[in-house]
Amino acid sequence: MHRIFNRPKSQERDLDILSSVDTRGIISRRELMRRASLFGAAATLSTFGGILKAGAQEGGGKVTVGLDSGAFTPILKTFAPEFKKATGIEVEFASYPLGNMYDQNLLALRQGTARFDAFDFWPNFVGDFGPFLTPLEEVGSLEELNFADIAKPFQQLNYYENKLVGVMIDGDMFINTYRTDLFENAEEQSAFKAKYGYDLAPPKGYKEYRDTAEFFTRPDKNLYGMVEVTSFFVYAFFINQLVQLGSEKGVRYGELFDAEMKPQLSNEIGEEALRRYAEMTAFMPKDLAQAMPWDVGRQIFFEGKVAQANWWTDMPKGAADPKISKVAGKVKCARSWGDVTVLPYGRAMGIAANSKNKEGAFKAIAWMQQSVNANRWVAETFEQSLMDPWRMSMFDDPKSTFPLQAESGFADNFASVSKELLASPKAYLDISIPGTNRYLASMIQHVQRAVTGQATPKEALDAMSTEFEETTETYGRDRQVAHYDEYRQRMIKQGYWS
User: What is the pTM of this model?
Assistant: First the structure.
């Protein structure tokens, strides 16, 4: 006697969906059904859902917004009902891992049908994403984006062939977060002056940065003088050393290439910057110093194990939150050391050129850019949102933007220091030319080799320069020269390299 097995109704439904879906050449229908038989219909739908469902997003008033997971998606999802009520447009937030932002988004942009109508990205990807993004002024006006309120340095990002293809939704820049219970302690001040011959204060230059880091490094007390990233995001911290030293020497500190795209790294300034970067690792926990992740570095500061952090602006936001920080009420901000305001990474939002609902996508971005909405997202707790301020109105009304830190006076301190940094005549903005992802990957790899002692600074910089040249040739030197000149002229026009 043969027993007849009936498939569950949910499995029948998933198989019906798969058998009727238009795969648009991404995967053959036969291969799709073969995978369904091997792995199950539900698992197959999950694997290919982000791409295959894109066709269902074309019509109506629905807008799909892609965001990297963790940092923003949780808080933005809470505002979806408000957006629909305000605009009549339904918005769906979809997320992707931070580490896959480049690959997943570039793949989605190159498809015939959009996976996302609008999505977030690091501005240094604009050189690669640019051909597949919609110039924003072709869909709406800068006034609708309240563009004038965006801080001047952040306005200079997200240009491709002199057309604005993205607008910031997260403003990253380096700021110094320091412990007042250490830096303002009378005994510490007296001991520091006796040892170094000058007053203890937040550092203004490299010497003071190194001295204060050395002074507060006390492994026997589980206290360290500073924290920097020495793993994936090494680029940001090495570039800070490079541009600050270049400014000290009076050169155009932001030019990684000359006018013909020849790398300007393997020289005395580059070697000294890399030596300084490696030298500072002595003032971090020994077991983490050569491979410090960004999230761990932030956490050990919150735990009270670090005296100061020249870090992105999410550090003070979290350090001042008593729910997650043991040093809340014991921190202040000061200018990051050096003359140059460094603004690495950050996030922008743009519209996919393959979107079928560009007008709806623009409305979604414009709604996010309204100050009252943007301020609320920054104002949420550290656990809910890692958004950093990027609009001047956020700093002009710090008690509204940072309600958790208002009573202590920290909000006013953070806002005033941030405004000073943003108004600086010297700033460094990430390059955003074709191949930037490859240039940065070379920098990350070889800086790590130097930090771990696998290569001398010169060997690391020589290898970096060789790979830079290979990337330039791969993308075409004439093309790269043209794109880099656009970037250079933008920096020169703003006076940032003077």
Answer: 0.85
